[in-house]
Amino acid sequence: QAAPIIVEMLRKQEGWDSGYYTGIATIHEDKVYMEKCVGSLQMLLEQEDISKFPGNIGIIHGRTPGTEGKEYAHPFVGKGGDLVYVANGYGGVFADPDYKKLRETYEALLAEGYACPTYMEGNFKMLPGGAKVHGSDLKCQEITYYVDKGMTAQEAMEKAFCERPGEIVGLLLNRKTPDRITFARINYPMFVGIAEHGIYLATTPQAFPEDAKDIGLLPQLSCGEVYRDRYTVKPFTQ
């Protein structure tokens, strides 16, 4: 069961750069179990016993402070509900101060029916009219669009990361392929650790279960898939 393990993994590294928004998702018998909140892991546990979520695969996330509602917590869900996405990082050296590429991407996806649940009106600069969306929510809808067009999850993540890059790393669950986690990494850290009972991913090695061995840093500018007993890695080619 993934949930109790990944809950403890987040607990070990909470405070590193998280504890203000928290969310989790697992997959079991063709269903996504997900919950998130504005607050710490403990607050989420008090809201719902997420440690009892079923499934042998899952992702969990904590993020830095903000002023928005729980929609701005990870994970994000793509249109249709099959894809669930978490990410770490920020625009960094790739950031466009005029948000031109973000606006273009948002408007193109919206025209195709891929709305962002984090859309928020106000006195912002990201989108036309002073609105904004969470960048990872937009990335999730981008990936979903490419998967709906026939790409594999790995192909879709690579294309979305290369077309609108950031200093980021992302993980993706797909309800239709519940035997794997798909990842893409530009340069934000993501480590892999291997144990007899499974393979784990985390942004710091301190999160891994104590019996996780063969810990390594996934390569920059790469994508791949992680299964229970193996993982694959390939460099970006786009």
What's the overall average pLDDT, rounded?
96
SS-based class: alpha+beta
Q: What general form does the structure show?
A: globular
The largest β sheet comes out as: 6 strands, antiparallel
List strands and helices in order, with pairings.
Blueprint: H1 2-13, E1 21-28, E2 31-38, H2 41-47, E3 57-63, E4 76-77, E5 83-90, H3 100-111, H4 135-148, H5 153-163, E6 167-174, E7 181-185, E8 191-195, E9 198-202, E10 213-217, E11 222-226, E12 231-235
Antiparallel strand pairs: 1-2, 1-3, 4-5, 5-6, 6-7, 7-11, 8-9, 8-10, 11-12
Helix pairs in contact: 3-4, 4-5
Description:
This protein is of the alpha+beta class and 238 residues long. It has helices spanning 2-13, 41-47, 100-111, 135-148, 153-163; strands spanning 21-28, 31-38, 57-63, 76-77, 83-90, 167-174, 181-185, 191-195, 198-202, 213-217, 222-226, 231-235. A hairpin with a 2-residue loop joins strand 8 and strand 9. Helix 4 (135-148) packs across helix 5 (153-163). The model has no long low-confidence stretch (mean pLDDT 96).
The gist of it:
This protein has 238 residues and is α+β, with helices and mostly antiparallel strands. The protein has helices at 2-13, 41-47, 100-111, 135-148, 153-163, and strands spanning 21-28, 31-38, 57-63, 76-77, 83-90, 167-174, 181-185, 191-195, 198-202, 213-217, 222-226, 231-235.
What are the main properties of this structure?
3-stranded antiparallel β-sheet; about 240 residues; alpha+beta; about 25% helix
